[in-house]
Amino acid sequence: MSEPGTSSGRPPTRASADEPQQTGAPARTSRDAQSSGANDDRPRAAPRALGSSRRRDDQLLVGRLTEHGRANYQFRADQDASYYVKLLTSRGSKTLWGKDLERALREGDTQPKTGDLIGARRATREAVTVTVRSRDAEGRIVRQDERHAHRTRWVVEKVKFFADRARLARQLRDEQVDVRASVRAHPELKSAFLSVRAAEEFAAQRIADPTDRERFLDLVRGAMAGSIQKGEPLPSVRLRNAPARTERRVPTTPNRKRDEPTR
Prior knowledge:
- The chain is of the alpha+beta class.
- The protein has helices spanning 30-34, 50-58, 100-107, 159-173, 179-185, 190-206, 210-230, and strands spanning 21-23, 60-72, 81-89, 92-97, 117-135, 141-158.
- The chain has seven helices and six strands.
- Strands 1-4-3-2-5-6 form a six-stranded antiparallel β-sheet, with helices on both faces.
- A hairpin with a 5-residue loop joins strand 5 (117-135) and strand 6 (141-158).
- Helix 6 packs antiparallel against helix 7 (210-230).
- The longest helix is centred in the last third of the chain and has 21 residues, at 210-230.
């Protein structure tokens, strides 16, 4: 079966949960095409190697934002509505497809605009239910089914945002860092360091073996630092509210004698 986005006798079936796509890239081998993330929202078998999937998801695509907007997937009239982002990169023009790209641009911390040098990165994948439509030769829908799939959540920001996040991630990974000085310089890391401290207290109480305890803390730091570097929202820690103190209320009116009339 031919890869989506390449020439074939029949346009690919597209699900309504339009997963981010990338078109306009230089010619690739079939192996590269399989790991490009094309049509990820279609129900399909799990990838052979988890490592290759992670490398694809972690990739940061950098380019100048030239155009973006709503359109049918791959600009085909017989496909479902989606959203596209066009970038001019060092390797030519690239087009990303995905419904979440609209939210990523709208809610971005740096509010990227057309003409800005930006980065785009897949952050997470969330489970969704999609409608898979089958069409006849004339483009009419002849069948549709509800299936489980995944939709990618994107982070689209100006390039400086990702450089700043990489520095914050290094701060969190460094076990020798001066936490107080780091928090003074980067207050946004306070919640992350509090989360690491909570993990250290948990490990000290629940994990007896020092090697296992260190491995656990490395995993916690690595996961949090990776999330920060991807551009995901910084963790927030809510302190428990202190229990409300109940004070005995003093009567404000004097006690009356039993035979005193009320007014």
